[in-house]
Amino acid sequence: MASTKLIFTFVIAFLLSLFISPSHSFWSYPPNDDGLKVSAIDSSKVNLSLYYDTLCQNCSTFIVANLTEVFNNDLITIINLRLVPWANAYINKTNNAIVCQHGPDECLLSTLEACAINVWPNVNKHYAVIYCFQFLAIEGKHKDWKSCFDTLGLNKTSVLDCYISGNGTKAMRYTAFQCSFYKSMLMKLAI
């Protein structure tokens, strides 16, 4: 029974994705009126969004061991890949703070990843940073995240500026809005 409900939910989510135009802001990162970048969407590609917890071992392993194959096998040429570091986070209604399932370190890394996505909209570039963060998470060294920028030869200043300015938090809040929207749509369809 539970597996039937799960399959039904995935089918409904897939059907919803067919009816939501790529031009809608629900696919792209936050609207650029907040100073955030919006990624261009190639309508000839398949849209794929991956919502994940930054410090979840299974999510990290999937990103490092499995998702890499999308790039290694050139599937990225036919996919609009959207990485969303949110999954089981929520906004506390009392103090309006973002709360992450695996604590403050996860919120920090998720916000930094949202900033990397914003600073480098090219999926090949921000995936490299996310891959590095996730690799460190698997090894229990997530606090060494700054080393990823040196390893990849990327300037961390733009990502840190995004984080300090609050644009990363804006991206996270926008993601929360998207998650609520899709969840409410699925709940309405499942009833």
UniProtKB/TrEMBL annotation:
Keywords: Glycoprotein, Signal. Pfam families: GILT. Transmembrane segments: none annotated. The keyword Glycoprotein applies. It comes from the Eukaryota. Residues 1-25 form the signal peptide. The keyword 4Fe-4S does not apply. InterPro entries: Interferon-induced_GILT. One of its GO terms (molecular function) is oxidoreductase activity, acting on a sulfur group of donors, disulfide as acceptor. PANTHER family: GAMMA INTERFERON INDUCIBLE LYSOSOMAL THIOL REDUCTASE, GAMMA-INTERFERON INDUCIBLE LYSOSOMAL THIOL REDUCTASE GILT. Belongs to the GILT family. This is Gamma-interferon-inducible lysosomal thiol reductase.
